[in-house]
């Protein structure tokens, strides 16, 4: 039996259609499994619908609920980061609000952590219901790509749905990267990590908050912030183009010397070489540019998120006002 305090971290973005059901199922699971010492941390990631009023109503009725409301939409990974920074439990579960990841799996995750003395229990999707072939294919491609490029083994077919204990949370909170790839960083932290399988359900309601554009941005951040191999590949591509260029030069000189009567000068080979080398250069510059942009984001040292309001039980704190007062004092 788990005798510590369990934190549940739930990032929310435009989830008014599902947030009440998410809360109901989470509370039912925690009560029925005897996990009565808990806290529910909902992070409102700048929702534009009625998510915040619903969360406020939930928090006012349940003193074990904390709502962190961002000043604007900062993204899923900053929302999870805020929850990990704020949680006070001996362990924490990260779960999305859309109910594709079943809250009913949480007691099994806790028991597996206890049985195997693990620091992390990550949920592996045996089946992904309600997702298109394109989504499943691109997800599989992404996992294989990031695994091939990463220096740290990353589990396949996993998301952020996982249970982490306090020592992992504390180490995570020491990491100061701005654009975090959380599932990769948790793997990088180490400690004993074990899988638990489940079937991922379709969304309970609403639409996916990860369209193709956000998926591409997420994949780009994962590659940029978790591996330097694209830079090495760009260098290797540049070296290969130099070798090809030298080979073509030798070939052209020998052809001119040995077969002067059959060598036909023309612009085709020249254009091919220019286009090829130009493409290599632009690709390499693009890769370097992305890394430089990432460095620029880091050195600006902006916060990963801004909490405009914290709602806990019947107590509400407006962080934006506090920040204004602090700014005024510094001036």
Task: Give the arrangement of secondary structure elements.
Blueprint: E1 6-12, H1 19-32, E2 38-44, H2 51-61, E3 65-70, H3 76-86, E4 91-94, H4 106-116, E5 120-128, H5 133-149, E6 158-165, H6 166-173, H7 182-189, E7 193-200, H8 212-226, H9 229-258, H10 268-299, E8 307-312, E9 315-318, H11 319-330
Parallel strand pairs: 1-2, 1-4, 2-3, 5-7
Antiparallel strand pairs: 3-8, 4-6, 5-6, 8-9
Main location: membrane
Membrane topology: Multi-pass membrane protein
GO molecular function: glycosyltransferase activity
Task: Give structural notes.
The protein has helices at 19-32, 51-61, 76-86, 106-116, 133-149, 166-173, 182-189, 212-226, 229-258, 268-299, 319-330, and strands at 6-12, 38-44, 65-70, 91-94, 120-128, 158-165, 193-200, 307-312, 315-318. It has 331 residues and is of the alpha/beta class. It folds into 2 domains: 6-227 and 303-328, Spore Coat Polysaccharide Biosynthesis Protein SpsA, Chain A (Alpha-Beta Complex), CATH 3.90.550; 229-299. A 9-stranded mixed sheet has the order 7-5-6-4-1-2-3-8-9, with helices on both faces. The radius of gyration is 25 Å and the shape is elongated. The termini are far apart.
